[in-house]
Input
Amino acid sequence: MNKALFLDRDGVINKDINYLYKIEDFIFIEGIFELCKYYQNLGYIIIVVTNQSGIDRDYYNKSDFDILTKWMIKEFKKNDIEIKKVYFCLHHPDVYGECDCRKPKPGMLFQAQKDFDIDLKNSIIIGDKEKDIEAGINAGLEESYLFNEDNLVLKSKAKKIVSKLKDIYSVNIK
Output
């Protein structure tokens, strides 16, 4: 079985700009490439799980999302990092109703488990919102990190709250 590093997109991979869909607005979070490289070298596969209700709300369309996603994956490849897959939920409860894929529900993680034979218990999720952490917990992950650049969140179900991505893996580097 594979171990996965599950990453939320907006707020973990890139600066969270409401309903981001344009390449020119995409700003990578400091340390994201180093974080992914570290875990990839440990044998983790990298998977993105992201809520994208802007599609359902008609703020942008799936084609816009696909263009940005392909560009993002290429930027990771330039840094010798393979994003195995980007799972996304386009649903918004007010438009679509309840679904199984919108975080905090674990549908995207369960689909990744099936697609890539993932050992969820020994996988990791990093998110910037509590619903990301809850999705990981709901899928049976035991390791989770809440990334909070501004140090505003004081309480979380996450294993640890960090203000810099390097704080997640730097303690393990000898």
